[in-house]
Write a structure and sequence with these properties.
The complex is a heterodimer of chains A (about 325) and B (about 300). With about 325 residues, chain A is an all-alpha fold. Chain A is built from 13 helices and no strands. Helices cover about 75% and strands about 0% of the residues of chain A. Chain B is mainly alpha-helical and about 300 residues long. Chain B has a domain at about 100-270: Orthogonal Bundle (MetI-like fold). The chains are: A mainly alpha (about 325), B mainly alpha (about 300). Chains A and B meet through helix 1, helix 6, helix 7, helix 8 and helix 11 of A and helix 1, helix 6, helix 7, helix 10 and helix 12 of B.
């Protein structure tokens, strides 16, 4: 068990290294000379040269990579060429919490609504409920999220005036204000995810409910809610956890668009703006952060399998 | 390890290729008969495809023609879907936009499928450290959400239609590679491949005659299903202002242009958005139908 876990962690470390190499090469492959960007239009050959040495850009690439990685791990992510502020502060301390809160709110919403809807759909299989849930699930997963966001802004923000159409209020400062600002973005981001959860819950629960042990539980006279929520759902947890874990990337993908639609200062907006301003150091930091986040979540999901399902415990 | 192997085996099992070569045509006919929604969705997708192909004949105006008297005009007899802030006819732009959506969708899926086939075959056939290394590389690609991956490529390549195709295509290599590898592993474990090996058939010939045909078919199904994903990612890129450049009539770009006017001219975003949503929903129903048809496990669920 320990050996298996260690192997998994080692494997993850290798993947992290590859991601770091990829994000490092973003900066190296990016068009334009960073030194020229920093110096502006007028500079002498000497100042160009000395800045290159100062930044370590004259050294061989592998050496630059190791140096960069060491500084990255320590939280020294360099300074923005344009605004000259530390990127760590900007990306990790300011932008990341916004994205994480948005993602967490969306995830919570998706689970709270999606799981019961999936259960309803499985229990009332082949009825109007089931068809309605299937229609929702299909539309929700195919609908472009940024368009959904715009529709919500139009209906609930502009026409009805119920929710603010843009901006972010930190919920740790003003919880209700924060929740109010986050409501529409969270609904936008959670819809495709909710649709997926409905689909997965229904498909797995339908299969589980046909198992003999469920019939046995019913025969023992256990109440229906116990048969479904205790006996049935236990075996649905596992695929659900897999999907939730593996789809975190999709959630971040949606967050990029949602943040732009609702003007939230998160990681997605940061990366988009950085590409538009040609600030490759910031792009690199964003890529690195998202990559690490997804990889570490995947590791947690993998390590949680044996906890969730005793049959998968390696001997 | 156990968990990943299990899920890989599971994926492999759900994507077994049927032996029949003529299956696609009959499958579509069966699908239409079995579920009417599939037929409607297929018709909608076909209508979009035809509109894209014959855009110059179908569209009432040139996509970049600016009607200076009718700026932000509501839908009328002259402009069925209204005009945008430059006086460009929205219906014509949506019709031409379908061209870009399909072009980007098809081409980038091709890049993703070919790249994924190469990496997936290599990873499935080779063993030891090379396979391990390749799979970690695929893991690393998959760790980045496709949109962020595409944005990263755009930041290196620059903007434009061809760049969007490359960026979205490269971003799709990872998922294709993983499923191809799972299929290869599954086919390789079957008796006829083992028998061919024991009979002394050349290794390359085994790959060409026995493994490749069994991998290509599920790959083609996958590619069809993923076209909608490519369209979604590329329109997202354009929506962010990172994809194609104005005045290209791209749906994502049009939605983004209308965003500023949403409070008083909702149709500028609304019309292209509705087109995108309709096409994506239709493609997803068609994709589900195709996948179910070729997927024995999913069919038995119904």
């Amino acid at each position: 068990m320990l050996r298996w876990a260690l192997l998994k962690i080692l494997q993850t470390a290798v993947v992290l290294l590859i991601v770091s190499a990829v994000s490092f090469s973003v900066l190296k492959l990016a068009p334009g000379d960073p030194v020229e960007l920093m110096l502006g239009d007028e500079y002498s050959k000497e100042s160009h040269r000395s800045l290159m040495v100062q930044l370590g850009l004259d050294r061989p690439l592998p050496e630059q990579y190791v140096d960069w990685l060491a500084r990255f791990v320590q939280g020294d992510w360099g300074k923005s060429f344009v605004s000259r502020t530390p990127i760590f502060q900007y990306a990790f301390v300011e932008a990341l919490p916004v994205t994480l809160i948005l993602a967490a709110a969306a995830l919570l919403l998706a689970i709270v609504v999606g799981v019961p809807l999936g259960v309803l759909s499985a229990v009332r299989k082949d009825t109007g409920w089931d068809a309605a849930a299937a229609a929702f699930s299909l539309t929700g997963s195919a609908f472009p999220s940024f368009y959904l966001g715009i529709l919500l802004i139009w209906i609930f923000g502009v026409a009805l005036g119920l929710f603010p159409t843009m901006g972010f209020v930190p919920p740790w400062q003003d919880f209700w204000g924060g929740a109010w600002h986050l409501a529409m973005p969270a609904v936008t981001l959670s819809t495709p995810f909710m649709a997926l959860i409905v689909r997965i819950t229904r498909a797995n629960l339908v299969e589980v409910l046909e198992q003999p042990y469920i019939a046995a539980a019913r025969a023992r006279g256990e109440p229906a809610w116990r048969v479904i929520w205790v006996h049935g759902m236990r075996n649905v947890l596992m695929p659900l956890a897999t999907i939730i874990g593996l789809q975190l990337g999709t959630l971040l993908h949606g967050a990029v668009l949602t943040e732009t639609v609702f003007s939230l200062p998160g990681v997605g907006r940061m990366i988009t703006d950085a590409v538009l301003n040609r600030e490759y150091v910031v792009v690199q930091a964003g890529v690195m952060m998202t990559g690490c986040l997804v990889i570490i979540t995947n590791l947690v999901v993998d390590l949680s399998y044996p906890v969730l399902d005793p049959r998968l415990r390696p001997r | 390890m156990v968990a990943r192997d299990l899920s890989a085996a599971d994926q492999g099992a759900t994507r077994r290729a049927p032996a029949l070569r003529l299956a696609p045509v009959r499958a579509i006919v069966d699908q239409v008969r079995a579920r009417p929604f599939f037929g409607i969705a297929a018709l909608i997708a076909l209508a979009f495809l035809l509109a894209a192909a014959f855009a110059p004949w179908v569209a009432p105006y040139e996509p970049t023609f600016q009607d200076a008297i009718h700026l932000m005009a509501p839908p009328s007899a002259a402009h069925w879907c209204g005009t945008d802030s430059f006086g460009q006819d929205l219906l014509s732009r949506v019709i031409y936009g379908a061209r870009y959506a399909f072009l980007i969708g098809f081409c980038s899926v091709m890049i993703g499928a070919v790249g994924g086939l190469a990496i997936g075959l290599a990873a499935g056939l080779l063993q030891g450290p090379v396979e391990w290394g390749l799979m970690r590389f695929v893991d690393a690609i998959l760790a980045l959400p496709s949109l962020i991956m595409a944005i990263t490529f755009i930041s290196i390549l620059g903007q434009g239609i061809d760049k969007v195709i490359y960026a979205v295509g490269f971003a799709m290599i990872g998922p294709f590679a993983r499923t191809v590898r799972a299929d290869v592993l599954q086919v390789r474990a079957q008796a006829f491949v083992e028998a061919a090996g024991l009979m002394g058939v050349d290794r390359l010939r085994i790959i060409w005659r026995h493994i490749l045909p069994n991998v290509i078919f599920p790959l083609a199904v996958q590619a069809t299903v993923r076209i909608s994903e490519a369209i979604l990612v590329s329109s997202g890129l354009s929506f962010l202002g990172l994809g194609v450049v104005p005045p290209t009539p791209d749906w994502g770009l049009m939605i983004s242009e209308g965003r500023a006017f949403i409070s008083f001219v909702p149709w500028i975003s609304g019309v292209p958005g509705a087109a995108l949503a309709l096409l994506l929903i239709a493609l997803s129903i068609v994709g589900d139908g195709i996948r179910e048809q070729f997927d024995p496990k999913m069919r038995s669920n119904r």
